[in-house]
Amino acid sequence: MSSKKRLIQPEDPDLGDKMKLIPDPEPELEISFKRVPVIESSGKIIPVCEPTLGGNELKYVTQCIQSNWISSAGRFILEFEREFAKVCGAKYGVATTSGTTALHLALVTMGLESGDEVIIPSFTMIASANTVQHTGATPVLVDSEMETWNMDVSKIEEKITENTKAIMPVHTYGHPCDMDPIMALAEKHDLFVLEDAAEAHGALYKEKTIGSIGDAACFSFYANKIITTGEGGMITTNNEELYQKAANIRDHAFSNDRHFWHKYLAFNFRMTNMQAAIGLAQVERFDELVQTRIDHAELYTSLLKDIPGIVTPPRTEGIKNVFWMYSILIEDEFGISRDELRARLAKRGIETRTFFIPIHLQPLYFEKYKNESFPNAEELCLRGMYLPSASSLTEMEIEMICNSLKKCRD
Ligand SMILES: Cc1ncc(COP(=O)(O)O)c(C=O)c1O
Among 321, 225, 334, 239, which residue's Cα sits nearest to residue 279? Predict the structure, then answer.
């Protein structure tokens, strides 16, 4: 019997032989000291990431509670927006509830609607595509390049049509995209550039800070990000008009003249003062938190670079990769597969993550893109994983992780 109250559960699509690209289910983590002598001394799980909250976070959140300013009004919002925009080299910041809502808000502010197209990489986190889809526009996918794991800039122009309204480069795992040719294409075809900078706090492209290059950039402050507010996000921009409109649409598009008077179909994507209080304390340690990720990556790379079958993360002349997650590829030469390695590391109490499953292989989007080809995105999906990357990791832990990784092949 049909009912209006039926909740629809989508079926998994038949991916055919593409199914072999999809990672195994998550391996179960085991407390290491029960089994593996090498980490016996620590006797704990090493998580893939965790926040570092050792500064003024508690003090500022306490001030919110003591002063009763716990919603989205309060001094920390404006201070956090100002200070974060400043470290990004941008004039304005609009704080939101997440990186996803920052992207959604930016796209709506740019006027995206049904019939429009936005060019994005297939190899990205699902939010890059879903936010486009939520506006009614269509994500148009481009393959990645193996050198940087970012959208292949040479393949963008062939995807531009008269419906294209924006390009969304994603600075994958903290490595900036090649922005000069992207900006030139946008100029030539009169397109917006919205940087998905969710993972790239503090990264530089030829001396320019990520967050200040496109028309707007969106950051995530989820707990695994280099700067966190627990959940949260921000649009940064140098465009005053875009800033004003985004700030208004974030807040139900309340009118300045009459309170309950609304001209746009808007949202409540407001960040709370308490989240911003944490964010401000994090930004006070911005340089240190970014540098720690870079130092950890250097140590990891020095310990892993000579192991056959391990590809260490990209480094590009003139570009500051901030290594949000320390990411590697496992090639056949390594001797065991990426999924087998993850399972063995999990037995030693070491948590890892696979790379993104590309958009064109997602149950949600498979039908739409099944006749297109994205071989590099698939290669990254099959081989990529990240190792524990929290700023709180010690050098000894990184050495232990690398030793365990070597032992996993035996
Ligand atoms: C590339 C990318 N875009 C968007 C997002 C969404 O950010 P959030 O989780 O804060 O909504 C993420 C989250 O990790 C991401 O990696």
Answer: 225
Q: Where are the domains of the chain?
A: 16-52+286-407, 57-283
299/402 Cα distance (integer angstroms): 10
- Whether 170 is in the pocket of ligand 1, judged by its Cβ within 6 Å, is yes
Fold for domain 57-283? Aspartate Aminotransferase; domain 2 (3.40.640)
67 alpha carbon to ligand 1 midpoint, in Å?
32
- State the amino acid at position 36 in one-letter form: V
pLDDT in tens, 334-376: 999 999 999 999 999 999 999 999 999 999 999 999 999 999 9
> Which residue has the least CA distance to atom 7 on ligand 1?
99
Ligand 1 centre distance from Cα of residue 201 (Å): 12
CA of 208 to the centre of ligand 1 (A): 22
pTM across the whole model: 0.94
Task: For residues 393 and 29, give the distance between their C-alpha atoms in angstroms, rounded to a whole number.
Answer: 18
Rounded-to-integer distance, Cα 84 and Cα 237, Å: 11
Encode pLDDT of 99-137 as tens digits: 999 999 999 999 999 999 999 999 999 999 999 999 999
Evaluate: CB of 220 within 6 angstroms of ligand 1. yes
16-52+286-407 belongs to which homologous superfamily? Answer: Aspartate Aminotransferase, domain 1 (3.90.1150.10)
Structure tokens at 70: 């716990």
Q: Residues with Cβ < 8 Å from 366, sequence gap 6 or more?
A: 13, 15, 360
Q: Is 98's C-beta closer than 6 angstroms to any atom of ligand 1?
A: yes
Helices 286-304 and 273-283 pack at an angle, to 10 degrees, of 60
294 Cα–ligand 1 center, Å: 20
Q: Whose CA is nearest to atom 8 of ligand 1?
A: 99
Pocket test for ligand 1, best of 97, 120, 149, 199 (most atoms within 8 A of CB): 199
Contacts of residue 119, Cβ cutoff 8 Å, sequence gap at least 6: 140, 142, 156, 159, 160, 164, 166, 167, 168
Q: Please name which of 77, 69, 124, 60 lies closest in space to residue 250, comparing C-alpha atoms.
A: 77
